[in-house]
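Q: Mutator family transposase, please. Structure only.
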Amino acid sequence: MIKFTEKTVVGLSETGLGLDELIRHGARQVIQQAIEAELQTLLERFENVKTLHGQRAVVRNGYLPEREVLTAAGPITVKVPKVRDCSGSGVKFNSSIVPPYVRKSPRVSAALPWLYLKGISTGDMSEALSVLLGEDAKGLSANVASRLKAQWADEHANWSRRDLSMSRYVYWWVDGIHTGLRSENSDGQCLYMNASRLRKSFVSSNIDRMGCICISGL
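A: Structure for Mutator family transposase:
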């Protein structure tokens, strides 16, 4: 049973931190503990691998340089540990929580298309994230936002060119809307195409048609 005393319970006024700072501090502790747990799992997996001198072949070997990860709680500095593999097997530690080169959490990455669709320009992304996540949330430059936009455009182009020759549709539904959003190459109009796919279920030589709605073009 945990016993709380005056030393373990510290008021907000005594910490000198605001609510957002406390949340980030707690999030950093939890993330760091989770990373250390991942490392411990890896070390336990190879604990029976020994060197010629009988020493453990896979051991921890300090930390990588600290890096800042932009999360929903704001920017958080993390330290990812390293391992040394003396067996020559090439064992490395890669955290699944903070993978190599990751600078933004999935939740922040998912918010970027939403911000762009709301009319936030690439140059204002950093400012918008600063309002949402704090003044220190400057990990997204205009160049990064532009690269992401190009990636989204490529994904949309590949999706638009997908093969539909093997698909059968009962009917097509086409509609147009005016988004009212900023757009570089259009007047804000969007053509929306929907289709109801034909599903066959052979029962007593009859075809049962069920509407499976899917977006066919945008």
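A: Brief note, in case it's useful. Confidence is low (pLDDT under 50) at residues 1-13, 199-211.
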